[in-house]
Design a protein that fits this description.
219 residues, mainly alpha, 0% strand
Length: 219
């Protein structure tokens, strides 16, 4: 789980490992495990993702703390955005928006591809670099999921010049492919196919179709 553990822990109330210090409450242990399994299942395109999400949310909701549930909802939204499943809002987060922490509200806007100079101070360092540096910030990211999400957010924001968008799509495809993340890879390859067809790049169209066929056969 190390490849996306930092993002999961950050969004589910920084659930710490139980190997040191006082024993973590049961809800933390359950939420952390379920969130990691949910993330893995979602990215793999597994039907188990829905059940793991319900376990994640139930564990966090057991605290009766809206801010904690809001942060868990941001995890679900982040995975959707990284997989190009763009909704008008982070629906699950909206119900708790009025009581959300400023950092979480800023992160929700980040996922929608919008941010203001005033909000940058509330973003984490990784997200702030993406907002300030654009695509130049992505190669330096250690976590593949953060890199994939950054590419999706930049594309959604409309801040990337058309001449640079192909490179952004290629980067996202490479990240998802290297990790074997079937759901986002299908989405990003589909986008790459559309762009190649629109630009008349017939050689790339055939290669992308071949890759999509391999994914279809792996289901």
């Amino acid at each position: 789980m190390k490849r996306f553990k930092g993002l999961v822990l950050s969004l589910v109330m920084a659930l710490s490992a139980c190997s040191s210090g006082p024993r973590a409450p049961d809800w933390q242990v359950q939420a952390q495990g379920a969130a990691e399994r949910y993330t893995s299942a979602y990215l793999a395109g597994s039907r188990a993702a829905d059940a793991e999400w319900q376990r994640t949310r139930a564990a966090v909701a057991a605290t009766a703390q809206p801010q904690r549930v809001a942060r868990a909802e941001l995890l679900r939204c982040a995975l959707q955005v990284a997989s190009l499943d763009w909704q008008p809002t982070c629906a699950g987060f909206e119900a708790f928006k009025q009581t959300a922490l400023p950092a979480d509200a800023a992160y929700a806007d980040y996922l929608l591809g919008r941010w203001s100079s005033a909000a940058l101070v509330h973003l984490g360092s990784t997200q702030r670099r993406v907002a300030e540096q654009g695509a130049k910030a992505l190669p330096a990211m250690d976590e593949p999921l953060s890199r994939l999400l950054g590419a999706a957010v930049l594309l959604r924001s409309g801040s990337v010049a058309p001449t640079e968008q192909d490179a952004l799509v290629v980067l996202a495809v490479e990240v998802a492919s290297a990790q074997g993340w079937r759901r986002p890879l299908l989405a990003w390859l589909g986008l790459q196919l559309q762009r190649a067809q629109a630009q008349g790049r017939t050689d790339q169209v055939e290669l992308i179709r071949q890759r999509l066929a391999l994914l279809a056969g792996s289901a």
